[in-house]
Fold these 2 entries.
Entry 1:
Amino acid sequence: MNKGLFGAVVVFLVALVAMAVGQVVVMEEAVTCNINQLAPCVPAMTSPALPTADCCTRLKQQVPCLCGYLKDPAFGKYVKSTETNKVVKTCKVNPPKCK
C-alpha cells in the first residue's frame, strides 16, 4: 500500500473511531461494545503488520460485539475486510455466528 493511500486509510479509520465514541452499547453484563476498544488493531487492519498482543486481547473481549459491528453500516465493511480476517485468524478468535 503506498504511503498516500495508507495515510488516507489511517485518517479515515481515526475519524471512524472518533465518530464511534458515542456509540457504546452493553451487549452482555461483562462486555461493553465500543469500537474504540479495537484501536490497537488498526495498524494490523491497514498494513501487512501482524496484530499486537493488546490487539488480540481486545479483539477477544469484543467477540460478543462483532455481529453488531457487522450490521452497522459505518463499520461492517471494515469488519468484513480481508485485513480484518487476517487479524482474526492470527489472534485465533472464533467469530460468532451472526443472524
Entry 2:
Amino acid sequence: MANTSEPSGSGAPPSGPSVAPASGKAEGNFSKFPSSPVKRTAHVRDRQELENTAIAQNPFKEDEFLARHLRKIPRNAKLDAAGVAQLVEAVTSCSNEHDMYQPTVHLLNTISQKVYDSFKGDTIRGRKKQRLLFLDHHHGPPAFHPCGSNTKSDLIGVWGEEKHYEKYRTGANNTFLKVPCHEACTVGELKPKQDQTKGSAQTISYLWPLMQARPDMPGVYAFYDYWADAAEPIASPLVGWDNLDLLMAYVYSMYDPPPRHYLYDPTISLTKPKHGFDPANVTYTIVSPPPRPPPRLGRYKGKGKLPADDNNKPRTRVYQHCKPIHWGAMWGRRSMVFIGQPRDNPDSFAVIKNSYRSDRRRFIEVEIIGHIHAEGTVPGVVCLINGAGSTNIQAEGGVLCTAPRGPDSKAHPDHTLDRLEMRSRGLPFHKAKSLLDLLKAAYDVLEVHRFLVLTRSILHRDFSINNVLMYPEHEEGQDPRKYPQMPFPKPR
C-alpha cells in the first residue's frame, strides 16, 4: 500500500505498520484478486544519474513532441516573425554561454508579452491573468528550497511584473539572485551549439528540484524543451534556434497547455498571510473534494461516517498551514506528505499524503485502510479522518493525471492523483529512543501483520524504516493503547 519512501503507517505501542494487499485464497476481502505486479521505484540519487537518464532516453521526434506536449501559438498573438528572427540571431551570434543569457531572456520575454496581450479578460484557464516573466538567474540557485537543493539553472520563469522582483535584482547586467524557489514555474539551461547535448542533460537535473519546490504544480515545462510530471520527463529532439515553432509553442503552452498537461493543482494553494510572510517557511492550503463512502466490501461492513454539511451531504475538507515533511521519488508516484490543521478544528492535526497511482495497480490505498478498520479501529494501522480519501481529483479539463505517453493520444493516463487524509503520526523507526523500544516496535509489527493476514487477507510486502512509525499520536482520541488486546486467531 505504501511506497518505500513515505511514512504511511502508525502503530500499536510503541509503533506499527502500514499495509498492502496480499495474494492467495485466504478468507476475507481482496481474496479474489491476484497479487498486484511487483512495483519498480526509480531511485535517482544524484545529478549525474539524472543527466544520464536524459541522455539515455529516446526523445520524441520534433513534430510529435509539438503535437502531443505543446500547443501552437495562435495567429491572434500577432507575433512579428521577422522581429523574433532578429532576436534569435542575437542569441546565435554569441560565442559563449555567458553572452547568451541576456539576449535569450529578452527573446523569451518578447514572445511572452505578445502571448499575454492576446488573451482577453481577467483569467487564463481559470487562473488570474498574469504575465510570464523570464529572469537571468545564473549567479545562484533559487532560495529557500525545502530539500536544500542548490541546483542552479541559467534562467527561471515567474508569474507577475518585473517590479515585484526588483528586490532580487543584483544590479550586474540585469541579473537576479535568490528569488524564492516557490515562485519559479519553469527553468532553463543555455549552451552554445557545440554543447547543446550537455545543456539538455543539465536541464533534467533542474526539473526534480523544481517539482519538489512546487507541490501545487502536477507538471512542469523546461527550456528547451521538456515536459515532466510524476511519470517521467519527456524531451523534444535537439533542435536549432531557428526552429521558432517549438520555441514559441513552449512559451504559449505555459499560458495555455494542451489537454491533460496540468500545470496547476486547483486544490493546493500557497498560504500567504496578510502580515509577515516568510519565504523560508512556506505552507499550503489543501482543499479536498467530498470523500468517497467507506468501503462496504465482503463481510466487513463499513461503520465510518462521512464529514457532512447541514443538509447531510458529504462536504469538502480544508486543511490550512500544510507544511511538506517528506518527498518520495519524483518519477513514478511523486509521493509528498504534508502535516497541517483542519480548518474546522485548528487545534488538531492532519497528515495529508499525495501520490500518483499507476493505473496498472489494482488496489487503492484508501480502500485497503477502510477495509482494515471496517469493523472498528485496528491498533497498529494508520487511521483516516472519518474514512476520508480522495481519488480522481478534478482539475479544469478533467481528472488530475500524468500526460499520455503512448502513440495513441486518447490512451488512458498512466498515473492518477490520489490523496490520503490521516489522523495518525509518529517518529521514523530509526529514531527509537532506546533499544528496548525498538524491539517492542518490531514485535508489534509482527503481531499486527499476523492479525491482518489471518483476518483481513492483507500482507504489506514493502517494509522500510520510513513506513513504520514510533510513538504514534492519533487525533480524535484514537490512541491504540486504550484498546483491549486484539483477539489474534490461531494459525491455521
